[in-house]
Amino acid sequence: MPEERQAAPPLLTVENLSVAYGAIEALRDASLAVAKGEIVTLIGANGAGKTTTLKAIVGLLRPKRGRVIFNGADIAGRPTHEIVARGVALSPEGRGIFPDMTTLENLELGAYRQPDRAQFRRDLDHVCALFPRVKERLKQRAGTLSGGEQQMVAIGRALMSRPTLLLLDEPSLGLAPLATQAIFDALGELNREGLTILLVEQNARLALARSHRGYVLETGRLVMSGDADVLAQDARVREAYLGQ
User: Fold this and answer.
1) Phi and psi, residue 196, nearest 5°
2) For the segment 18-40, what is each residue's pLDDT rounded down to a tens digit?
3) For 123-143, what is each residue's pLDDT tens digit?
4) Which residues, listed in sequence order, are joined to residue 33 by a DSSP beta bridge?
5) Where in the chain are the domains?
6) Which CATH number does 8-87+163-244 carry?
7) pTM of whole model > 0.85?
8) Integer angstrom CA distances of residue 8 from 37, 38, 88, 210, 243
């Protein structure tokens, strides 16, 4: 469990958000909040609407209705590049790296808005300090990296945009335990540095153990919320998502 945080104003507030794929509503009237300095996790079964939520926040999907308030501004339906410029970054499910480009070139894409080369170098050094394996692979084609290394590159690329809110979609999916541990250790360090994180993670036990608070999504609706340690002890959550 991460260290306790003093009450802080919401950095992100989602109000009655609904998203549809054609006639099918994948997310219905979802409301959640993420305070500055928190790690908040979304848990739920496949198809519950977790990825849809993240994509709507970052502008990859246009909401049918509802609001997304980030840092005091309604960003719902705004173009993704504008949302990224405001300080939101997404590390997507499946990583989305460019396999024929080098690791360094992938990271440079995350910093496309950074004209200051000295700041770029500082940001790159920060990513390399978080993920030493990335530093070792800067000149290597990203498609030749291991799954864990590719995930580190994907997170590093998001960090290169210097976000104040990092959205993470299934960072441990398909990874070996040691790679998963390294990634979650890095997320803990980022949070201690002040980064706010909204996390979607199929390993609900791990996600709740590393988060301050959590929300439970079921078939497009938010059905539970609370402190992460309280959710981890809830009988319904334990049966449905923790295998107990």
Assistant:
1) -90, 135
2) 999 998 999 999 999 999 999 99
3) 999 999 999 999 999 999 999
4) 13
5) 8-87+163-244, 94-162
6) 3.40.50.300
7) yes
8) 8, 9, 18, 19, 33
